[in-house]
């Protein structure tokens, strides 16, 4: 794209301001220098924005690939320093790394930083993401041997500790990060115990039936999986090193390393007093990524994207979505950039999609299985280890899970988008006959009735 074409496009996009600021003097501040922030900045430049861009990041590192941390970095196949995201172009941006945003004053259009500096903005993108939920006891969390897996530094330190071959690793929590960490430990030949208070791993995302299949996968690969209980306390020796964990069921475990994988907390505290609608699920925004204030009105100059965003999706209108996955951060950031440039003309309606590798198995999900009230295996077989499960809510398909059959999901994404009925009528050659629909309940004492067949 020539400079002349870029300038013409920018003038067209900011034509309503031609008698005030020009596009070349607009200042876009991006609070959050990670995946969403980077892609928003790239989209702005791709579409001819010639003004200033400032990216602010609490971490000292340029944007890097977080999914690789709990997969390839912990296993030693990739150095933490080699996870940086490639820059597809020179952004001509100012980077303020190693300093967190601390406040937002929408009246003066100013963002305050932790180092005492402040920045004025014409457009602001909130992309501060989330952080790992810490172990609740600060003294126990500070023991040598207690780790999280969220940042590049976390992964570097934990990978080094795993390479030193601890006697036993304890993983607290069996969501995707916890399960991936346990998988890496077994790959390295390490003894690992996973403690999960739910009936099975991954139940929050995929429901109990799929979780029971995941539990069998854990145990088949030698994981000491303890479900229906939780960790009461972490104990250290006289030198401040982790040595033991006590569980609520009365048992004690001798452990050298503990990985706390209890989910994430949105980085929203800096928005206190901003007047924006902020909850534990994130910063609420409209489908065009415009932040919504406490009265429900969108702010045209404050946008939201990535893990910190919470927004309405037309296919899941029972409650706003909050998604912590790579694909969503990229797509939402580009919609936010389009809204900055064009106004509210392009909504963020992409289906959530994510994947995981655990114990040599590829797991891919589309839609929102956590919203479902029914599930059914519609292709393949759980016993054979390769299958597709469809998720339904009120008679409509809302999600799908593919285990070692990733190519099948495109068809299910189309069904979800078309609001197809559940269970889907596929007539697939590898489909069970008949299809068995399992009810998803918040709790069920007869867990055998919930096993996927």
Unreliable residue stretches: 1-22, 443-451
Number of helices: 9
What's the Cα radius of gyration? 23 Å
N- to C-terminal distance: 55 Å
Helix content: 10-25%
* Overall morphology: globular
SS strand fraction: 25-35%
The main sheet comes to:
6 strands, mixed
Number of strands: 29
Structural class, by secondary structure, is alpha/beta
Side by side, the strands of the main sheet go 3-2-1-7-21-20
InterPro entries: FAD-oxidoreductase/Apoptosis, FAD/NAD-bd_sf, FAD/NAD-binding_dom, FAD/NAD-linked_Rdtase_dimer_sf, Reductase_C
Cofactor: FAD
Domain Reductase C-terminal: 354-426
Domain FAD/NAD(P)-binding: 27-333
How are the elements arranged and paired?
Layout: H1 3-13, E1 27-31, H2 35-46, E2 52-57, H3 69-75, E3 94-97, E4 101-105, E5 110-113, E6 118-120, E7 123-126, E8 130-132, H4 138-141, E9 146-147, H5 152-163, E10 169-172, H6 176-187, E11 192-196, H7 203-220, E12 224-227, E13 231-236, E14 242-247, E15 252-254, E16 257-260, E17 264-266, E18 278-279, E19 282-284, E20 290-292, E21 298-304, E22 309-313, E23 316-321, H8 326-342, E24 353-358, E25 361-367, E26 374-381, E27 386-393, E28 396-403, H9 409-417, E29 437-439
Parallel strand pairs: 1-2, 1-7, 2-3, 7-21, 9-16, 10-11, 10-16, 11-12, 19-22
Antiparallel strand pairs: 4-5, 5-6, 8-17, 13-14, 14-15, 18-19, 20-21, 22-23, 24-25, 25-28, 26-27, 26-29, 27-28
Give short descriptive properties of this protein.
alpha/beta, six-stranded antiparallel β-sheet, 9 helices, globular, oxidoreductase, FAD
């Amino acid at each position: 794209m020539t400079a002349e074409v870029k300038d013409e496009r920018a003038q067209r996009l900011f034509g309503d301001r031609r008698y005030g600021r020009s596009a070349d003097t607009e200042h876009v501040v991006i609070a959050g220098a990670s995946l969403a922030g980077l892609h928003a900045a790239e989209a702005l430049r791709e579409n001819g924005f010639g003004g200033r861009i400032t990216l602010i990041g609490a971490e000292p590192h340029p944007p890097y690939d977080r999914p690789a941390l709990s997969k390839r970095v912990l296993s030693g196949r990739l150095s933490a320093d080699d996870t940086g995201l490639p820059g597809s172009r020179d952004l001509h941006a100012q980077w303020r790394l190693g300093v967190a945003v601390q406040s937002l004053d929408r009246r003066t259009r100013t963002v305050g930083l932790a180092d005492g500096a402040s920045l004025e903005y014409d457009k602001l993108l909130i992309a501060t993401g989330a952080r790992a939920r810490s172990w609740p006891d600060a003294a126990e969390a500070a023991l040598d041997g207690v780790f999280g897996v969220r940042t590049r530094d976390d992964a570097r330190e934990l990978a080094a500790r795993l390479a030193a071959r601890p006697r036993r690793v304890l993983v607290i929590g069996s969501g995707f990060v916890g399960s991936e960490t346990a998988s890496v430990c077994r790959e390295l030949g390490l003894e690992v115990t996973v403690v999960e208070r739910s009936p099975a791993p991954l139940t929050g995302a995929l429901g109990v039936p799929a979780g029971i299949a995941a539990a069998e996968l854990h145990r088949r690969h030698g994981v000491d999986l303890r479900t229906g209980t939780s960790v009461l306390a972490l104990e250290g020796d006289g030198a401040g090193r982790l040595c033991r964990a006590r569980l609520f069921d009365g048992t004690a475990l001798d452990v050298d390393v503990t990985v706390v994988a209890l989910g994430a907390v949105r980085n929203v505290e800096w928005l206190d007093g901003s007047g924006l609608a902020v909850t534990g699920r994130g910063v609420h925004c409209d489908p065009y990524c415009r932040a919504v204030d406490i009265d429900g009105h969108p702010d045209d100059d404050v946008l939201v994207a990535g893990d910190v965003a919470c927004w309405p999706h037309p296919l899941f209108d029972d409650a706003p979505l909050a998604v912590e996955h790579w694909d969503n951060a990229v797509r939402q950031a580009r919609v936010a950039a389009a809204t900055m440039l064009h106004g509210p003309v392009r909504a963020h309606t992409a289906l959530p999609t994510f994947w995981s590798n655990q114990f040599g198995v590829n797991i891919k999900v589309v839609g929102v299985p956590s919203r479902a009230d029914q599930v059914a295996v519609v292709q393949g077989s759980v016993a054979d280890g390769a299958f597709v499960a469809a998720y339904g809510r009120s008679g409509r398909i809302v999600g799908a899970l593919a285990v070692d059959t990733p190519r099948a999901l495109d068809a299910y994404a189309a069904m979800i988008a078309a609001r197809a009925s559940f269970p889907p009528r596929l007539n697939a050659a590898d489909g069970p006959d008949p299809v068995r629909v399992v009810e998803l309940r918040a709790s069920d004492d007869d867990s055998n009735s919930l096993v996927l067949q």
